[in-house]
Specification:
The complex is a heterodimer.
Chain A lengths: L18 H10 L1 H10 L1 E3 L8 H21 L9 H10 L4 H28 L8 H23 L4 H15 L5 H9 L6 H33 L5 H8 L6 E3 H26 L22 H12 L3 E2 L2 E2 H22 L1 H4 L5 H24 L1
Antiparallel strand pairs in A: 1-2, 3-4
Chain B lengths: L3 H14 L5 H7 L15 H8 L3 H12 L10 H4 L8 H4 L12 H12 L2 H5 L9 H7 L1 H7 L8 H5 L19 H9 L17 H6 L2 H8 L8 H5 L12 H6 L3 H8 L11 H5 L30 H32 L5 H20 L5 H64 L1
The chains are: A mainly alpha, B mainly alpha.
Chain lengths: 374, 437
C-alpha cells in the first residue's frame, strides 16, 4: 500500500532485521536513533563537569514524576481528607514514607540543581546564538519548577503550609491591576480554603506537568539538535586552529551522568531516612498564625527582600514595587540572550558575567539572612 | 412605678422577716421618696457649691460622680441625699423641708440604694435583665442581720461598690469585679481590729490570705480565668454568709459537679462533717496531687485510717497504687512516643492513644471520690490497656526507624559498589581511547 507520509520511506525489505527489534525498526526507524546516539559527542574541556547539571535535573524530574504518580494512588485532595491521607501514606502504606520523603527531598534537590544549571549556563555564556530558545525554555522551566514547589507545599494541608500559602498568594494579590484577580484564581475564592487545595492539586498534577512536558521536550530536543555549547575561550581556541576535543555521549558521558545520578539517589535516601518530612498539625483556617511561617528555601531571598523594602518608596507601595522589580528581573533573565549582543558575536561580556555572580551572591546572602532573621 | 411608701414597707417587711426586730420600725419610718427620672437637667446647686469646696471630703464626690454609673445616666445627688438642687440657697437646699438626708450610713444607705434597685419596673428602664433582689438578699446576709442588730461596722452597699464612684460590676476597675473581690472583702475581713466583736471575740481574719494561696486565686489572678471562684462565688455576694456545713458539697459541686456526684454516692458522705473541706480545706484549697491520697507521707486518708488492718487504709493504698501504676504506664509510653517523634516518625495515632489514657487517669482521679477501690481499679485498668497500645505503637515506630536505617545502609553499600564499578568502567574506557589515539 502506498504511503502518504511526509518523510522518506525505507524501501520494503531493505535494511531490515528480524525479530522484535526489526518489527519496531521498520515502524519507528530505530536505526536512525541508534546512529544518532552512536555519533553524538560531548565536547571535552576543563569545565565539562557543568554539562552534568542538565542531566541530573532531568533525572530528578523523572524521580518526581515516578514518586508523584505513586503518591496520587493514595492522596485525596480535599480539606477533610488531605492531611489524613498523607498520614495514611507515611504510616500505613508499605514504603509510603519512603516515597513521600523521596518526593519531598528530590523536589528540593531538583530546584537546587535547576538553579545551578541555569547559573552554569549563564557563566559559560552557553545561551548565545543559536541557543537563545534553549535558554528561554530553560528559564521558564525553572519558574515552572518553583511553581511545582509552591503548589506542592500546600498539598499535605498542614498548618505551616496553609499560612505560607496565605502569605504567598497574598503577595500575588499585591500585583498591580491583575493581582486581586490572579489571587482569587489561585485561591478559588478570597481565602485559602479547601477550594485552594483542590486547585493547587490540579495545577500540581495536571496543568504544570502538561506545560512542563511540552517545554522540557522542546528544551531537550534543542539540546540534541544543537549539541553542547562550548565556552567562548574554547571556541576561540578552536577557531585559532586548536583541534576540538570530544568524547562519545554513549557510553563515555552517559556513564559519568549515571555516577552522578547514583550519588543523588544515595543523598536522597539518606535524607529520607535521617531527615523525614514532618507532617505537622492539620491545617485549621481559624487557628492563630503559628510561629515559624516561612516559604520554601528557594523563595526565602525574595520573601526577605519584600520584608526589607520600606512601606512606601517614591509614593509607590513598597510591596508592589518589590513585586514589579522581581517581575522585571524575571523578564530580563529570560531575555539575556537577546540583551547580550557581544556574546552573540562570540565575545565575552564581563557585564553579564558580573550580573550572574551578583545574582548568585544575592540569592545566597538573602537566603541566609532570611533564615537568620526569623 | 411602685409608690415609695410601698417600697419602704416592703423593705421593712423583708428586714423584719430576717429578724431585724425593732430597727425595722425605724427603717420604715424613713421617707423613701421616689426615683424622679434618669436625667438631671438644668443647673445643679449641689455641684456648684461642692465643686468650690476646699475640703476634699466635700468636693471629691462631685468629681467621682462624673465617672459613676449613676452619674453617667443622669441620676443626680438628690436621688440619694434628698434636698433641693434647684436653689442656690444652701440652707434651703439642705433643709429638712426639702427632704435633705445628708451623708447616708447604715440602714439609711441600704434603703437609699434599695429605693431604686428593688423597683423592677424602674430598673427595667435601664436594663431588662437587671436583678432587683439585692436588698432582700442583703437583709438575709450576715452583714444585713448584724446591721439590723445595730452593728454599724458591717458592710453596706457602699462598702463594696463605693459611694460616688460606683462602677458596673463588669468594669475591671470596679471593686466588685471578679479579680478585685478578694481585695474588697479583705479590706474588712483581714482587719483584725475591725473583725473583733463587741464582746471581744474575734472573727477569723485569715480567710483572704488563705484564699490568695489557693489554686482558685491562682487561676483567677495569674491565668485571668474569670470562671475561677472568688469570695462571693461560695459565700454569695449580697446575701454573703458562711456556707452551712450541709451545703459545702453543694457549693463546691456548683463547679465540680462530677466530683460532688461521686462523693454523694460514697460511704464518706454521711461521715464527713464538712464534706469537701475535710480533705481539701476551704479557703486555702491547693492543687490536689496524688500525694494527698494513699497511706504515705502527706496523705490525708491516714489521718482517719491510720491502722494497717483498717479497710480504709487498705482501700486508700489500693486506689493510690492503681493511679500510680497508670501514671507510670503513661509516662513510659509518652517517653517512647516522644523518642520516635524526635527521630522524625509519624506518631499521630500514638498521641491519640496517649490522650485516651490520660482521660482514663483523669476519670480515675475523679472516681477516687467514690472511695471505691474496685471502681478506680476498673478505670485505671482500661487506661493501662490504652497506654500499652500507645507504647507498643511507639516501639513499632522505633523498630521501623531501625529497619529504615538498616535498609539505607544496605542500599548505600549497593550504590557505592555500583558507583565504584561505573568509575572503573569509565577509567577503562578512557584508557582504551587514549591507547587508540
Amino acid at each position: 500500500m502506498a504511503s502518504h507520509g511526509a518523510g522518506p520511506q525505507r524501501p520494503e525489505g531493505e535494511g531490515t532485521s528480524s525479530g522484535l527489534y526489526g518489527w519496531l525498526d521498520e515502524r519507528l526507524d530505530l536505526t536512525a536513533i541508534r546512529t544518532f546516539a552512536a555519533e553524538k559527542t560531548v565536547p571535552v574541556h576543563k569545565r565539562e563537569f557543568w554539562y552534568c547539571l542538565g542531566g541530573i535535573t532531568l533525572f530528578l524530574f523523572a524521580v518526581q514524576v515516578a514518586t508523584g504518580i505513586l503518591l496520587i494512588l493514595y492522596y485525596r485532595p480535599s480539606a477533610e481528607e488531605a492531611y489524613e491521607s498523607v498520614q495514611f501514606i507515611v504510616t500505613q502504606v508499605e514504603f509510603g514514607w519512603l516515597i513521600r520523603n523521596v518526593h519531598g527531598w528530590s523536589a528540593n534537590l531538583l530546584i537546587g540543581s535547576a538553579f545551578l544549571h541555569m547559573f552554569s549556563v549563564w557563566l559559560l555564556t552557553s545561551y548565545r546564538r543559536p541557543r537563545e530558545i534553549t535558554w528561554v525554555s530553560g528559564a521558564i522551566l525553572l519558574f515552572l519548577m518553583m511553581a511545582f514547589g509552591f503548589s506542592g507545599y500546600l498539598l499535605p494541608w498542614n498548618e505551616l503550609a496553609l499560612f505560607a500559602t496565605k502569605v504567598g498568594t497574598g503577595i500575588v494579590g499585591a500585583v498591580p491591576l491583575i493581582g486581586p484577580f490572579a489571587m482569587r484564581v489561585l485561591r478559588g475564592g478570597d481565602e485559602v480554603t479547601g477550594a485552594t487545595l483542590s486547585r493547587f492539586y490540579g495545577f500540581h498534577v495536571a496543568v504544570l506537568p502538561a506545560v512542563t512536558t511540552l517545554l522540557l521536550g522542546l528544551h531537550v530536543l534543542l539540546v540534541q539538535r544543537q549539541g553542547m555549547s562550548v565556552p567562548i575561550d574554547v571556541e576561540q581556541a578552536e577557531r585559532a586552529g586548536s583541534p576540538p576535543k570530544s568524547r562519545p555521549f554513549f557510553p563515555d558521558f552517559f556513564l559519568r551522568d549515571l555516577v552522578l545520578w547514583y550519588v543523588a539517589i544515595a543523598i536522597i535516601a539518606a535524607l529520607a531516612a535521617f531527615l523525614p518530612w514532618e507532617l505537622g498539625k492539620k491545617a485549621d483556617p481559624f487557628a492563630p498564625v503559628p510561629p515559624g511561617i516561612r516559604p520554601e528555601w528557594y523563595f526565602v531571598a525574595m520573601f526577605h527582600t519584600l520584608k526589607l523594602i520600606p512601606g512606601h518608596v517614591l509614593g509607590i507601595e513598597g510591596e508592589v514595587l518589590g513585586i514589579l522589580g522581581f517581575g522585571v528581573l524575571a523578564l530580563i533573565l529570560i531575555a539575556i540572550p537577546f540583551l547580550d549582543r557581544r556574546a552573540s558575536r562570540g565575545e565575552r561580556n564581563p557585564i553579564f558575567t558580573a550580573m550572574a555572580w551578583l545574582g548568585i551572591a544575592y540569592l545566597v546572602v538573602f537566603t541566609i539572612v532570611g533564615y537568620l532573621a526569623e | 412605678m411602685r409608690p415609695p411608701w410601698l417600697i419602704a414597707i416592703w423593705v421593712a417587711g423583708v428586714l423584719a422577716l430576717a429578724g431585724t426586730g425593732g430597727r425595722v420600725a425605724h427603717l420604715a419610718a424613713q421617707p423613701a421618696g421616689q426615683p424622679s427620672g434618669r436625667v438631671a437637667s438644668g443647673p445643679n446647686g449641689c455641684v456648684t457649691c461642692h465643686s468650690a469646696e476646699r475640703e476634699a471630703s466635700l468636693s471629691a464626690p462631685v468629681a467621682a460622680h462624673r465617672a459613676d454609673v449613676h452619674g453617667q445616666r443622669g441620676i443626680g445627688c438628690v436621688e440619694c441625699h434628698g434636698g433641693d438642687a434647684t436653689t442656690a440657697d444652701k440652707v434651703k437646699a439642705m433643709s429638712a423641708a426639702a427632704g435633705f438626708k445628708g451623708k447616708l450610713t447604715g440602714q439609711a444607705q441600704v434603703l437609699a440604694c434599695a429605693r431604686c434597685h428593688s423597683d423592677a419596673a424602674y430598673m427595667r428602664t435601664f436594663s431588662p435583665k437587671q436583678r432587683v433582689d439585692q436588698a432582700v438578699e442583703y437583709a438575709a446576709s450576715a452583714h444585713g442581720r448584724r446591721l439590723a442588730e445595730g452593728d454599724t461596722r458591717v458592710a453596706t452597699c457602699a462598702s463594696c461598690h463605693g459611694a460616688h464612684g460606683v462602677r458596673s460590676a463588669s468594669d475591671a476597675q470596679s471593686p466588685v469585679y471578679a479579680t478585685n473581690v478578694a481585695g474588697t472583702c479583705g479590706s474588712c475581713h483581714s482587719d483584725a481590729r475591725r473583725m473583733t466583736r463587741h464582746d471581744g471575740t474575734a472573727h477569723p481574719t485569715a480567710a483572704v490570705a488563705d484564699y490568695t494561696s489557693s489554686v482558685h486565686f491562682d487561676a483567677l489572678s495569674r491565668r485571668r480565668d474569670l470562671s475561677a471562684p472568688t469570695c462571693n462565688d461560695c459565700h454569695g455576694n449580697h446575701g454573703a454568709a458562711p456556707p452551712g456545713v450541709d451545703a459545702v458539697s453543694n457549693v463546691c459541686g456548683t463547679c465540680h459537679a462530677v466530683f460532688a456526684a461521686r462523693f454523694d454516692t460514697s460511704p464518706h458522705k454521711p461521715v464527713f462533717e464538712k464534706a469537701c473541706v475535710d480533705c481539701h480545706g476551704n479557703h486555702a484549697v491547693v492543687r490536689p496531687t496524688e500525694a494527698l491520697m494513699g497511706t504515705g507521707a502527706g496523705a490525708i486518708c491516714v489521718t482517719c485510717h491510720a491502722e494497717k488492718d483498717d479497710p480504709g487504709f487498705r482501700g486508700a493504698a489500693a486506689m493510690r497504687a492503681s493511679i500510680d501504676r497508670l501514671s507510670g504506664h503513661i509516662a513510659k509510653a509518652a517517653g517512647v512516643v516522644e523518642q520516635a517523634r524526635n527521630a522524625g516518625m509519624e506518631v499521630g495515632d500514638q498521641d491519640l492513644a496517649l490522650g485516651k489514657a490520660r482521660d482514663q487517669l483523669m476519670l480515675a482521679r475523679t472516681d477516687v471520690h467514690t472511695f471505691d477501690p474496685k471502681k478506680v481499679e476498673g478505670v485505671t485498668a482500661d487506661g493501662d490497656k490504652v497506654a500499652a497500645e500507645a507504647e507498643a505503637g511507639g516501639r513499632r515506630a522505633l523498630e521501623e526507624l531501625s529497619f529504615r536505617r538498616r535498609g539505607l545502609t544496605a542500599s548505600l553499600v549497593l550504590i557505592l559498589a555500583v558507583v565504584g564499578a561505573l568509575t572503573l568502567k569509565i577509567r577503562q574506557i578512557d584508557q582504551r581511547r587514549s591507547a587508540a589515539q
